[in-house]
Write a structure and sequence with these properties.
Two copies of one chain form a homodimer.
Chain A: E1 17-20, E2 25-32, E3 39-46, E4 50-55, E5 62-69, E6 74-78, E7 81-83, H1 90-102, E8 104-105, E9 110-115, E10 126-131, E11 135-136, E12 148-153, H2 155-163, H3 170-181
Chain lengths: ~180, ~180
């Protein structure tokens, strides 16, 4: 896929206004349309990069979590994940989130893929790592905003959960698709 | 996957504070942890549902779009999509976005799947539709905030774009995975 010379970036024409919400900042600015020459307002969500982790036990099962999610006000079945801390390597963040949320640790994180959660309104990326030989070696370190149940599921049960809609989280579905695309078992 | 009786919802304890950013609202509230009994602050992004569209031409090629995205300040290769209008059926929204963004129309939208873009912080869902027999029948109706190039690609080119990272949008990757999972061609 090659670019079209007629498609050009939109220069920002006005200083940003920001609102800090802790886990992300809202940034508002104006940018000039290269097509119409007109200034338009845009709002984006500036967030740190996220990670999620496909953690497989020595038996090949997957370490999953259930928790109450405040966006949808519902329980979800997901894989472990979270925000990359400032200055932290995404691979380290993956191992840290796995440990904190589940008490599991394993081999060195292997990058499975990177996605943009929503390039229209989110500035960040989500990195998916595979951690093999995951075993429960420590206690969980849930922060006060978390209440997590660890569920170890077979690969088939996870596939079925993705197919039947039990797993609905887009970033988790991307992680599972990366895993399936990987040639080796 | 069955629920654990120990995992309970978090009751909201404080009135919400809202900030309206047009394409979404930021909602802040406090909720009580069922684990610790402590009140914690949460921030979520209340957005209308989104749709995206896998539109296949009579030859089986896919109608894709390139555009500048202000979240990542970069050009993306995506499929058509957008927000469901108030009171609009998601299937209608899919046909409308395809028409407005590309000038293509086709058969009745068939639901391929539904995902939650991020249940931790987003309240909404994204509906993916398949539209067959898509042909360019009309002009595009880009709004002043859009500048879109239509690119019709073979299924193989799209698969390759998903594999090599040309297509990075998580919701688009979910749509393509739904299409691949569908048994019929």
């Amino acid at each position: 896929v090659t670019g079209n010379d007629e498609l050009r970036p939109w220069p920002r024409t006005r200083d940003e206004r920001r609102a800090d919400y802790g886990i992300f900042e809202i940034v508002r600015f104006r940018a000039r349309s290269p097509r119409t020459g007109e200034d338009r307002p845009f709002t984006v969500i500036e967030a740190p990069d996220w990670v999620n982790v496909v953690a497989l036990t020595p038996a090949g099962d997957m370490v999953c979590i259930r928790q109450f999610r405040h966006g949808t006000s519902a329980f979800t079945l997901e894989i472990p994940g979270g925000m990359v801390d400032p200055g932290e390597d995404p691979a380290q963040a993956a191992a840290r989130e796995l440990r904190e949320e589940t008490g599991f640790t394993g081999g060195p994180p292997e990058l499975l893929g990177v996605v943009e959660p929503n390039p229209a309104i989110l500035t960040n990326r989500c990195h998916t790592y595979l951690i093999r030989d995951a075993r429960r070696t420590t206690g969980t370190e849930m922060d006060a905003g978390e209440d997590i149940e660890v569920v170890v599921l077979s690969r088939d049960a996870v596939r079925e959960g993705a197919r039947d809609g039990t797993i609905k989280h887009a970033l988790v579905l991307c992680a599972l698709a990366f895993l399936e695309d990987r040639a080796e078992p």
